[in-house]
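#lab-general

N.A. 3:47 PM
ok so I finally got the sequence cleaned up, no stray characters, all 251 residues accounted for. can someone with queue access submit it? mine expired

B.Y. 3:52 PM
send it over

N.A. 3:53 PM
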Amino acid sequence: MNILIVENENPAAERIVRLLKKIDRSVAITDVIETVEEAINRLQEKPEPDLILMDIQLDDGLCFEIFDTINVDIPVIFTTAYDDYTLRAFKVNSIDYLLKPVDEESLRSALTKYRKLNAGNDPFRRDFKQLIHEFRNQYKSRFLIKAGDKYRSVQAGEISHFHIAERSVFLTDYQGRDHGIDYSLEQLQEMLDPRKFFRINRECIVSIDSIALMHSYSSSRLQLILKGHEQNNLFVVSRDKVGDFKKWIDE
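B.Y. 4:20 PM
back already:
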């Protein structure tokens, strides 16, 4: 079993590693990381761990920002000194919630629960990824963005469009502010609610709520005017997407 530990307190991390090795010598610790940003980066890499042991309050924010930013289909055992976040934890991938200092019996019980969930011979077993998607919204509702040394969350409903500029992808909010994000437009198409967002060309995805006007453009294309923006070639629906775009608008 490969386990990722997300914990910003060294004594707590060392205790968890020691207990895991005592409970099951076959456990392999893939990494011990301390921040939201590190966790986001690590969880987008392969191979993925089988299980995550995660503290809630990290050096740069609450761990829930990880789940708001990327899709995580890996079961999590939360380890925390606080019981204030129990309900929120079980709305993501939690299979257990252990209060610090974590004791051997509680951790052993949590690992047993994980093994039962993933036991191939369990007649009541259901695919864990399917359970996650049934329990939570399938589409991304928030994006974590960094401004200087601070982070904040942008709701999907605050986003006017996404676009490519100088080989980077930006999120533009309704105030006209651009924020760099670490996703391609192809990845965003998978994450965003297709009822709300449409990729109009190779360089831009627009929100349906941002569209103020539409009019005909050359070569059977459509020109969109977005709220708060002047006419711009970035907002031209490409010829091959016009038919699907009209169906999307008319839903």
